[in-house]
Design a protein that fits this description.
Blueprint lengths: L3 H12 L2 H8 L3 H15 L4 E4 L2 E4 L1 H27 L5 E7 L1 H6 L1 H11 L3 E7 L2 H10 L4 E5 L7 E14 L11 E2 L7 E5 L5 H9 L5 E6 L2 H9 L5 E4 H4 L7 E6 L3 E8 L7 H13 L10
Parallel strand pairs: 3-4, 3-5, 7-11, 8-9
Antiparallel strand pairs: 1-2, 5-12, 6-10, 6-11, 6-12
Helix pairs in contact: 1-2, 1-3, 1-4, 2-3, 6-11
Protein name: HTH lysR-type domain-containing protein
Family: Belongs to the LysR transcriptional regulatory family.
GO molecular function: DNA binding; DNA-binding transcription factor activity
């Protein structure tokens, strides 16, 4: 089935630029324009608006883009299954991840996976919780390594229970304590990861009715640590983020303990492509139950 023209439309909609979409597939801008025109003539309506600033989906395009993504996804599955039957292992995989997962888990996973499956290409997409949920729902990624939320509409397998910690400047009055009581955040100058990037921290603040004085927000957890190191405030961050920063800041267990579940999230484990199924197997094999990396 010739669905490349659909894939071109999907890519053009994602990057909002015909030239970039063409470069991704090795086509000229005129070639991309021709392919889109053919699809629009077949469908009987415009899919993309063109302007000097780029392209965007028309209302009609917004309605059909989920269907085009589904067609592209099933075609990729068909290609992979056919290759699998013929004794070949190839395909494309799109993996969404938190930045902390990308730093601490992915290098070993990718090294081992690519050593065994060099013909499976992998596109890594970093983002926050909200972005990962949207991309999974829209079919823009095949799986996400992220925080698992109750009743969030995806299937998931837990890889690690990730505890949260209080992160303080070394000179903080409570920095030498064995634990940090959650109520001590009330009124404290606080640096917060932005909503939509890590919603778990907002849930902690709400569940325990905490009212810190939020001074700064950032969508980069490592920037938050740097600001804490400079004495600009305190924060709550997961262990996977702070495990490399104990020399720069004081990291204390929370009282009471609070944690999140990190894992593999997909729309359906039964409908995974062969490449995705293999990748999930390597993730589970490489990440130990405590979230550490298994020995070589």
């Amino acid at each position: 089935m010739d669905i490349r023209k659909y894939e071109v439309i999907i890519k053009a909609a994602e990057c909002r630029n015909l030239t970039k979409a063409g470069e991704f597939f090795g086509y000229t801008q005129s070639g991309v324009s021709h392919m889109i025109k053919v699809v629009e003539e077949e469908l009987g309506f415009r899919v993309l608006n063109r302007s000097r600033s780029g392209v965007s989906l028309t209302p009609e395009g917004e309605r059909i883009i989920p269907v085009l993504r589904e067609i592209a996804r099933w075609n990729e599955n068909l290609v992979q299954i056919a290759a699998d039957i013929n004794g070949l292992v190839c395909g494309n995989l799109r993996v969404g991840v938190f930045s902390s997962v990308a730093i601490h888990w992915l290098p070993r996973i990718l090294r081992d996976f690519q050593a065994d499956y060099p013909h499976i290409s992998i596109d890594i997409i970093e983002g926050g919780s909200e972005d990962m949920r949207d991309k999974l729902s829209n079919g823009e990624i095949d799986l996400a390594l992220m925080s698992i939320q109750p009743n969030f509409g995806f299937e998931a397998q837990v890889l690690k229970v990730d505890s949260f910690f209080a992160v303080l400047p070394h000179e903080h009055p409570l920095a030498k304590k064995a634990h940090f009581p959650l109520e001590a955040f009330n009124g404290s100058e606080f640096i917060l990861v932005k909503r939509g990037y890590d919603d778990d921290i907002y849930k902690i603040l709400a569940e325990y009715s905490l009212t810190p004085n939020i001074k700064f927000t950032s969508n980069n957890e490592h920037a938050v640590v740097s600001m804490i190191e400079s004495g600009l405030g305190v924060s709550i961050l997961p262990e996977l983020v702070v495990r490399s920063y104990h020399e720069n800041v004081s990291v204390l267990p929370l009282s009471p303990e609070v944690s999140r579940k990190l894992g593999i999230c997909v729309t359906s484990f039964d409908e995974l492509s062969p490449a995705c199924r293999r990748f999930c197997r390597y993730v589970r094999k490489t990440v130990a139950p405590d979230g550490a990396m298994t020995e070589d």
